[in-house]
Amino acid sequence: MRRLMSSREWPATRVGTGILSSQPEENPHWWNANMVFIPYCSSDVWSGASSKSEKNEYAFMGALIIQEVIKELVGRGLSTAKVLLLAGSSAGGTGVLLNVDRVAAQLEEMGHHGIQVRGLADSGWFLDNKQYRRTDCIDTITCAPTEAIRRGIRYWNGIVPERCKLQFKEGEEWNCFFGYKIYPTLRCPVFVVQWLFDEAQLTVDNVHLTGQPVQEGQWLYIQNLGRELRNTLKDVTASFAPACLSHEIITRNHWTDIQVKGTSLPRALHCWDRSLHESNRNGKVALKGCPIQLIDSCPWPHCNPSCPTIRDQFTGQEMNVIQFLMHMGFDVQKMAQQQGLEPSKLLGMLSSGLGLLPLP
User: Fold this and answer.
1) Taking the model in full, what pTM does it have?
2) Which one GO biological process term can you cite for this protein (predicted)?
3) What is the Cα–Cα distance from 119 to 311, expressed in whole angstroms?
4) Rounded-to-integer distance, Cα 189 and Cα 57, Å
5) Is 90 among the catalytic positions?
6) One of 90, 123, 246, 306 is an active-site residue; which one?
7) 71-108 per-position pLDDT tens digit
8) 112 is an active site residue
């Protein structure tokens, strides 16, 4: 474990990026925090409790791994901590939603009532929506999101939080793997980071951007995906959702560059941390001038000018916003008309970085 830890006692041998970085320039708020990196080797969305046996060739023990790591860390200084932030990306982001309350309960059972447990879920807020084009469930890529989880939870002996489980009929625990369904049942505060046009979501929905302009049906499907995802985040207290086509962010070294409504993700997380501190101290939640609910309102992938650079999948060349939208089959004339603008003015706004247009 030592090589995966960063603390005053054990110098880090793993160089982290993004929120795992020990450089203040890259990680302005938590650069000097004690960090533990847990590799994802259980392939069960951190939910499994199935050991290898004569019947089962593989072990899926993600939930138990987290439990054992917490036990070990308590003996190595966690018992004196004020805050424990459980963070994860992609499957790890969903794993945060599934485990944050269990970690809090575990620490309480061990007698550590003073540790505030919080969650940071990055790119793990998936939708159980209809695929753009239905395919047979052959592997994880071709499976519809609901069917993949239905099958997986049986192999993994997946554990979901009791409060969420009680919301559904027996055998329908798979619902708790979807953020908008489990979030209302959580007791611990969770900050949700989610691209409105997540590449992993588009992949399981069978929308493949193969280097050719997308068809009108695909384009409409992609735009609707953004609307659907935006709607599921309306009641999330703390969120950061840029209108970008990407996947994962908190461990990327460019995570400080992405902004929603003029606020970066590290700044939003700092505001959230302060609001929780103030809330525990005197009951206040919102801090003036410190936003924690940041969701883009513009309707297209990469209409936010701070989105990460994207590359043409065939040529490898970088594309700017206009090139990308043209590549996606963007109709300048039609979109300008919808926005009540001259086409030249719309393109000028996009190229100058004023791309945050309201939904028509």
Assistant:
1) 0.87
2) negative regulation of canonical Wnt signaling pathway
3) 32
4) 37
5) yes
6) 90
7) 999 999 999 999 999 999 999 999 999 999 999 999 99
8) no
